[in-house]
Amino acid sequence: MRKVNLKDVKETERKSPKEKYHKFVKDVSIALGRDRESLDLAKRHPFDLAMSRIPKGKAYCPYHSHGAESELYLVLSGRGAVRDKDGTTEVSAGDAFLFGPGEAHQLSNSGEEDFVYYVIADNPRGDSCYYPDSGKWAVPWGGPEEAIVKGNEADYYEGEE
Predict the structure, then answer these.
(1) How far is Cα 4 from Cα 15, in angstroms, rounded to an integer?
(2) Is 89 left (phi over 0), alpha (psi -120 to 50) or beta?
(3) Number of folded domains in the chain?
(4) pTM across the whole model
């Protein structure tokens, strides 16, 4: 059995340059020995678990959808606003919700205290993200790195024949 206590899991912070996006994340799966690079599911884990915390007035990341990944959320504390194709829904402690591949979403803090939740993701290799507001893509680029690209629509065979 692999075991960790959340108080012992390192919390990492990430902010965008203008601080619209600000988050703190405890990667529980990494603390339990997940190897991001391995193709072996015993080392990679069939799903990832993270505890995320968003400060007052901030969002986790831009509005996006995953090409292959599903994400299950469970709110622990605080209040959040969850944006999807139908608009924005308020969530609070005890609420659970799910986004599948191709379902755009964004989480932000709509309350006075930190918005804290668990996210469980199914961890597919080669997942990409699409950002509908900007028309950008995040695509795998060898190992854990990704490239952010913005291109023009093209015909499938353009440049191929």
Answers:
(1) 26
(2) beta
(3) 1
(4) 0.89
